[in-house]
Structure formats: structure tokens, C-alpha cells
């Protein structure tokens, strides 16, 4: 069953990919790192650059099926993958009682 699902997924992706053309593609890899940039006719764009220490900085964008422009900037380094975008979920605010408790603990040397 999994084989059929994967086959269907690959066929679906290839059918969608046939509608798009590559408008721009640049890539450079050298001893100091890498850099790439590409854009397709269906409004997908991505670019990234990385250094010889493994840090990568880039962004990618596309239009959702609903027509919304999606744009994500990211850094990936020793601190992990750090995306930034208006579409990413954010944690809810800390409840006021918890915030006051944290302030109290910090003000009293970490002892409640």
C-alpha cells in the first residue's frame, strides 16, 4: 500500500512540475561555501548562501493555492534552523499570573 501511495505522490508531483519552467538558475560552489538562486514560472523563488563553517542563510517564496504570497527567511547554523515569516505560528502570550510568578522568582534569587 505504501508503494502505491509513494508512486501516486511521485506521479502527482511530476504532473505539477511539467506546468512550471525554470526562469532563472544560478549556482556556485567553491572552497569558501556555496550560493544558489532559482525562480520558476509558477512564482517559486529560492536563494541561499552558505559558508565553509556550515552556516546557511536564505529565503524562499511561493504563492499558496489560495493565492497568498508566502515568504520565509531563514538562518541555519550552530543554533539550528531559524525560520522567520508572518505565516509561522507563534506561541500564545504568557498568562499574567505566570509572568508575575517568574518576576517574583527572579527578584528573589530563584527561590519561591
TrEMBL record:
<keyword id="KW-0732">Signal</keyword>
<feature type="signal peptide">
    <location>
        <begin position="1"/>
        <end position="17"/>
    </location>
</feature>
<keyword id="KW-0193">Cuticle</keyword>
<dbReference type="GO" id="GO:0062129">
    <property type="term" value="C:chitin-based extracellular matrix"/>
</dbReference>
<dbReference type="GO" id="GO:0008010">
    <property type="term" value="F:structural constituent of chitin-based larval cuticle"/>
</dbReference>
<dbReference type="InterPro" id="IPR000618">
    <property type="entry name" value="Insect_cuticle"/>
</dbReference>
<protein>
    <recommendedName>
        <fullName>Larval cuticle protein 4</fullName>
    </recommendedName>
</protein>
<dbReference type="InterPro" id="IPR050468">
    <property type="entry name" value="Cuticle_Struct_Prot"/>
</dbReference>
<dbReference type="Pfam" id="PF00379">
    <property type="entry name" value="Chitin_bind_4"/>
</dbReference>
<dbReference type="InterPro" id="IPR031311">
    <property type="entry name" value="CHIT_BIND_RR_consensus"/>
</dbReference>
Amino acid at each position: 500500500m505504501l508503494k502505491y501511495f509513494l508512486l501516486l505522490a511521485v506521479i502527482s508531483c511530476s504532473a505539477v512540475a511539467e506546468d512550471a519552467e525554470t526562469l532563472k538558475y544560478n549556482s556556485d560552489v567553491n572552497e569558501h561555501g556555496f550560493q544558489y538562486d532559482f525562480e520558476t514560472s509558477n512564482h517559486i523563488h529560492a536563494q541561499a548562501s552558505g559558508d565553509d563553517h556550515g552556516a546557511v542563510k536564505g529565503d524562499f517564496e511561493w504563492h499558496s493555492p489560495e493565492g497568498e504570497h508566502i515568504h520565509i527567511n531563514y538562518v541555519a547554523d550552530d543554533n539550528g534552523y531559524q525560520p522567520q515569516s508572518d505565516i509561522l505560528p507563534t506561541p500564545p502570550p504568557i498568562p499574567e499570573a505566570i509572568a508575575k510568578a517568574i518576576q517574583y522568582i527572579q527578584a528573589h534569587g530563584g527561590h519561591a
